[in-house]
């Protein structure tokens, strides 16, 4: 028999912004139940039988393999811990079975986190373009209200006035 443990944390990061909120995840027991069911789901078990180590021990790569894996595993939960045990004839094969299930579970969660990051990036890019548009509208409104021509026009006019002042200074010095 070989075993493994998954420890779940009652704190989950926000999708859009990372903050330092240390409050307990609402409905944590339901979250643990969902993860308990997920680790036994066909999605995780299908990924587990495709792990190269499972192929090395000759595990079937079809529905029979998934069914056999489901019968081999015993999954229990207690608060934030999910325990997984596998009884098998060879202790190294039992460890391979547990490791493949944990590897599959972890890789699926990593993919989910990457998907959340891409959602976060898309949402922030959308907000950035919206805020830039609002900023441009605000600048246009200020220019319209003040009947100005913009900061570029002001800096060009300033440069021209400085050049004119230098030219006048040069003529005065020539006359003197």
3D structure, described in words:
The chain is mainly α. Helices cover 66% and strands 10% of the residues. It has helices at residues 28-39, 42-49, 52-56, 63-72, 91-146, 151-175; strands at residues 2-7, 73-78, 81-86. The chain has a three-stranded antiparallel sheet. Helix 2 packs across helix 4 (63-72). The radius of gyration is 33 Å and the shape is rod-shaped.
Annotation keywords:
rod-shaped; 176 residues; mainly alpha; single chain; 6 helices; 3-stranded antiparallel β-sheet
Q: What percent of the residues sit in helical stretches (DSSP H or I)?
A: 55-70%
Give the rounded overall mean pLDDT: 84
Radius of gyration: 33 Å
Main β-sheet, spatial strand arrangement: 1-3-2
Q: How many H/I helices?
A: 6
* Span between termini: 106 Å
Q: Structural class given helices, strands, pairing?
A: mainly alpha
Low-confidence stretches: none
Quick one: how many beta strands?
3
**Shape summary:** rod-shaped
User: Describe the biggest sheet?
Assistant: 3 strands, antiparallel
Strand content: 5-15%
Sequence of secondary-structure elements: EHHHHEEHH
How would you concisely characterize the structure shown here?
The chain has 6 helices and 3 strands. With 176 residues, the protein is mostly helical.
Tell me the layout of helices and strands.
Elements (H helix, E strand, L loop, with lengths): L1 E6 L20 H12 L2 H8 L2 H5 L6 H10 E6 L2 E6 L4 H56 L4 H25 L1
Antiparallel strand pairs: 1-3, 2-3
Helix pairs in contact: 2-4, 2-5
């Amino acid at each position: 028999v070989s075993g493994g443990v998954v420890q779940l944390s009652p704190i989950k990061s926000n999708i859009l912004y990372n903050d330092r909120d240390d409050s307990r995840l609402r409905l944590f027991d339901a979250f643990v139940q969902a993860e308990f069911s997920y680790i036994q789901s066909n999605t995780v078990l299908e990924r587990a039988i495709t792990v190269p180590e499972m192929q090395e021990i000759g595990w079937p790569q079809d529905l029979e393999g998934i069914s056999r894996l489901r019968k081999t595993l015993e999954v229990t939960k207690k608060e934030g811990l999910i325990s997984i045990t596998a009884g098998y004839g060879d202790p190294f094969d039992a460890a391979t079975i547990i490791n493949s299930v944990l590897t599959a579970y972890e890789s699926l969660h990593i993919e989910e986190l990457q998907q959340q990051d891409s959602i976060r990036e898309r949402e922030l890019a959308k907000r950035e373009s919206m805020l830039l548009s609002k900023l441009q509208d605000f600048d246009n409104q200020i220019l319209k209200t003040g009947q100005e021509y913009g900061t570029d026009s002001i800096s060009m006019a300033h440069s021209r006035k400085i050049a004119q002042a230098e030219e006048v200074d040069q003529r005065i010095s020539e006359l003197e």
